[in-house]
Amino acid sequence: MARARTSLGRTFAAHAILITWTVIALFPVFVTVINSFKSRRAIFADPLALPWPEHFDLVGYTTVLKQGDFFGYFQNSMIVTVFSLFFVLLFGAMAAFALSEYRFKGNLLWGLYLALGIMIPIRLGTVAILQIMVAGGLVNTLTALILVYTAQGLPLAVFILSEFMKTVSDDLKNAGRIDGLSEYAIFFTLVLPLVRPAMATVAVFTMIPIWNDLWFPLILAPAEGVKTITLGSQIFIGQFVTNWNAVLAALSLAILPVLVLYLIFSRQLIRGITAGAVK
Q: I need a surface site. Which of 35, 37, 149, 253 has the fewest CB within 10 A?
């Protein structure tokens, strides 16, 4: 009886902590969304009030859609994010498979070298990256951002995926080799389907920093035609006057892709995180 009460108390405490953390994490999103449907005067009068009919105003959204090229910014962000995720998952999974499956000279050193990318922020190399992009004629192109974000996401992808690939049964892979499958066929048809939770985890953790980044778009692609949504939203922020309706509306629209991605991969994400916790 005492054990049951202790277990119930621990469960209640854990849920209370998780609920509190969820409320704290979602509170800025809640404030951003509700204020995007209010007039400027209502925002400053009571920023925590809901957009009741007397305060409801879509001026922020109409400003975003009319001023600037929001759909162009959104498209640029989608292109950069989708291609970066594709290359991170593909090359990260291939590197993780090689490091976990084969034993060769320098295997451990290569793994440690890639792990350094997690500990050393890529922004420390901004000057060198800019020089490389200028020399390659890639400034003010989406290709520059894709290359940088791919390099940024690979270390974490290799670190997570290699641990999961070590758990794939050797008997399964050897059976595939006996049946005449090539190493590429084993990788794509046998290994990748078994590490989908880890792939979803990497996708979510990689997409959010890419989608929200302002640093590299401001430095590598500030031209109007290649602005991302985070950089494009800056047009509503002035030196003396800021159009908060439009800023909050733009940020609310920018939240949608991240929310959709989470809803699609939430089950795989939770499986990947819990599996990693068990390990």
A: 253
At 239, give phi and psi (nearest 5°). Answer: -70, -35
CB 207 within 8 A of CB 258: yes
Residue 225, amino acid: G
In the numeric block, the tokens 């009068």 are attached to 45
Query: Could you report the per-residue pLDDT of 179-221, keeping only the tens digit for each?
Result: 888 888 888 888 888 888 888 888 888 888 899 898 999 999 9
Give the C-alpha separation, 56 to 35, whole Å: 9
pTM score > 0.90 for this model? no
Spatial separation of the C-alpha atoms in residues 107 and 180, rounded to whole Å: 26
- CA 100 – CA 6 distance, rounded (Å): 42
Asked whether the beta carbons of 150 and 91 are under 8 A apart, the reply is yes
Single-letter amino acid, residue 35: N
